[in-house]
Structure formats: structure tokens, C-alpha cells
Amino acid sequence: MIDENIVTIQVEKDEQGRTGTWTEETRDPEGILISKRVDKYSYYETGEINVIDQRIYDGEGSLRSKKTVKHFTDGRRPVVTELL
Fold it and tell me: Which H or E run contains 4?
């Protein structure tokens, strides 16, 4: 039998029904938290994604990675900025 990690995703919507916060937890087969990713979304007035603030934590809750993904409405590719 192969043990596989369990991934759960929770999505919280904003007042317009768009994704506000995306939380993804990875646990081992015994239920112990291995990592947690939290993405917070902001939007332009047009409803298009503006910035995604992404944070990744280890199983003890320590911040391991922090980045922003800036989207543009003029066709440019998103820009990723590593903050940690």
C-alpha cells in the first residue's frame, strides 16, 4: 500500500463572488500538517485579477516563501516578485 499525502483546499469568496482567499493544506496520511499555502486575491474595478499575494508555511507555521504575482490588463505577462 502506498501512503499519499492529503491535500485540502478552502476557498473564501469576496462580496462579488470572486476568489478572495485560497488556502491549501498538505497533510501526511496520519493527518499531520506538512505545509500550508495561502493566496489572497485583489481585483481591478473591471473584475480582472490585479495582485495575488502568496505565502507558503511549513508544518510548524513558519513562513517559508512570500511572493506577489502582479497581473496587468494591457496584455503583458504577470510579474512574480519573490519577497522571501
Answer: none
CB 39 within 8 A of CB 52: yes
Q: Which own/partner pairs from 57-62 qualify as long-range (CB within 8 Å, at least 24 positions apart)? A: 58/34, 59/32, 59/33, 59/34, 59/35, 61/36
DSSP 74: S
Domain parsing of the chain, residue ranges: 6-82
The CATH-assigned architecture of domain 6-82 is Beta Barrel (2.40)
| pTM, rounded to two decimals | 0.89
pLDDT digits (tens, 9 = 90+) for 2-51: 679 999 999 999 999 999 999 999 999 999 999 999 999 999 999 999 99
Q: Are 82 and 68 in contact (CB under 8 A)?
A: no
